[in-house]
Design goal:
The chain is an all-alpha fold. The protein contains three helices and no strands. It has two domains: 35 residues; 44 residues, Phosphoglucose isomerase, C-terminal domain (Orthogonal Bundle), CATH 1.10.1390.10.
Length: 80
């Protein structure tokens, strides 16, 4: 999901979308979605990707899908 501009309204919509998705999937699988080790793993993976998104690291070192999405983000920001 990509947006041209991340403003408070868009950010709120994204948070609500993912929060709802996590809750529904947890209910379907009968697990507590908000107490999982995967949350910490996601934070670690996102932290490792931040330099690529910020343009401090070359996206070509990542898989093709990630490199393509990062390139799109850079084009939307006008930094490429």
């Amino acid at each position: 999901i990509l947006y041209r501009k991340l403003d408070p309204r868009t950010f709120g919509r994204l948070v609500a979308l993912y929060e709802h998705r996590v809750f529904v999937e947890g209910t379907l699988f009968n697990i507590n979605s908000f107490d999982q080790w995967g949350v910490e793993l996601g934070k670690e993976l996102a932290t490792g990707l931040l330099p690529v998104v910020e343009g401090k690291e070359n996206a070509a070192k990542r898989d093709a899908s990630t490199a393509g999405l990062v390139g799109h983000i850079h084009r939307l920001r006008g930094s490429e």
